[in-house]
Design goal:
The protein has 11 helices and 13 strands. With 358 residues, it is an alpha/beta fold. Helix 5 runs parallel beside helix 7, helix 9 packs across helix 10 and helix 10 crosses helix 11.
């Protein structure tokens, strides 16, 4: 390396401090060059060593890769609008919406179709689970895995938990793995780097064993009147990036037992449930088990809490209907205005417009 060194003179003499600084610069530059050479040699040595090992990349001409993909079976939905075979889906909502109920329903229905399903439960106790399904038998192909923390040396050791899930899945020849839920699996999921690492390991597990995976997740605190977006998923942005599909699940203002589903990401198939067309579901315990019944479709805004102005306008419309001579019943007014009969009754009571037998 050629280095032009200029020394500053004072009264015909070279300034000693300036020369010392220049000497230090030269020495530092030589050191950096030496380190760069060492790094380059190390990389070259590593590349040579890697040549003797099988690569973890599969490289082929793009046209060959594309044509092979076109010959594959088309994507298959295991659960409409939610689960695609051999893909990773995240289903998220706030607390108390019913993620576990819906996920268990999906597990039972898939097992009834002959799929081998492993439900990894971090949420409910054995008794809590049994009380939800007192009269619901399920096929022997549905397996439940509940963690016993007393048998763990370190309950925060996520790698051990993941390894055990993988071992169980292989031993039981599982086709669908359901994780309930990600927060319990990743103790430090609020730390984005940790959450992303766990998600990468789950996706790698799913891809390695060609299974289907459904992961339940939470939303952080959010304004209830806002539409669901992919940014409402708690944890690292890597969660939604690595997932094939992201499904939002939320309560509806239409009825206390109503919920709605919206597809926020659906990698292999067209999105059918967007904000203009969400899927309605109603929670019920009919037939001796807690589950959802699928209903119709509506815009997402029809399910979100009304603003103050919208509430005032609705109350005025209810009062107007209640004042009609020989008017409609509470239920008919509710259906006409898109609200609940209990809401009509509250407005009637507060305005002294109660109707006997209505």
């Amino acid at each position: 390396m050629n280095l032009l060194i200029m020394s500053r003179k004072e009264n015909g003499m070279i300034n000693k401090d300036s020369k010392q600084e220049l000497d230090e610069v030269v020495a530092q530059a030589a050191l950096q060059q030496t380190e760069s050479q060492k790094q380059a040699q190390a990389l070259a040595s590593g590349a040579v060593q890697q040549q003797d090992k099988p690569s973890f990349f599969n490289v082929s001409p793009f046209n060959d890769y594309r044509m092979e993909g076109l010959r594959m079976d088309p994507p298959k939905e295991l659960c409409p609008h939610i689960l695609v075979e051999q893909e990773t889906t995240i289903l998220f909502s706030g607390p108390g919406v019913g993620k576990t109920v819906l996920a268990m329903q999906i597990a039972i229905e898939l097992a009834e179709q002959g799929k081998r399903v492993l439900y990894v439960n971090f949420e409910l106790s054995q008794q809590q689970l049994a009380l939800r399904y007192p009269n619901k038998d399920s096929p022997d192909t549905l397996y439940h895995a509940g963690i016993d923390y007393t048998k763990m040396h370190d309950v925060t050791d996520q790698s051990m938990i993941l390894s055990e899930i993988e071992r169980m899945a292989l031993e039981l020849n599982i086709e669908v793995i359901i994780i309930d839920n990600f927060t319990n699996l990743c103790i430090n999921s609020k730390e984005s780097a940790e959450a992303g690492k766990i998600m990468q390991q789950l996706v790698a597990m799913r891809m390695t064993h060609n299974c289907t995976m459904l992961i339940l997740a939470h939303t952080p605190k959010r304004k209830q009147g806002d539409p669901l977006t992919i940014d409402d998923l708690a944890g690292s942005k890597l969660l939604s990036n690595l997932a094939d599909n992201v499904i939002g699940f939320n309560k509806s203002r239409k009825d206390k037992n109503m919920r709605y589903l919206i597809q926020l990401k659906y990698r292999s198939l067209p999105i059918e449930l967007d904000f203009k067309n969400v899927q309605e579901l109603t929670l019920t315990s009919s037939d001796g088990w807690l589950h959802f019944e699928y209903g119709g479709y509506d815009e997402e805004r029809a399910h979100l809490p009304r603003s103050r102005d919208e509430k005032a306008e609705l109350e005025r419309d209810i009062v107007k209907e209640l004042k009609q001579p020989n008017g409609l019943s509470y239920r008919d007014i509710a259906d006409k205005l898109g609200t609940s009969s209990s809401m009509v009754q509250r407005v009637a009571k507060s305005n002294n417009l109660n109707r006997k037998g209505k």
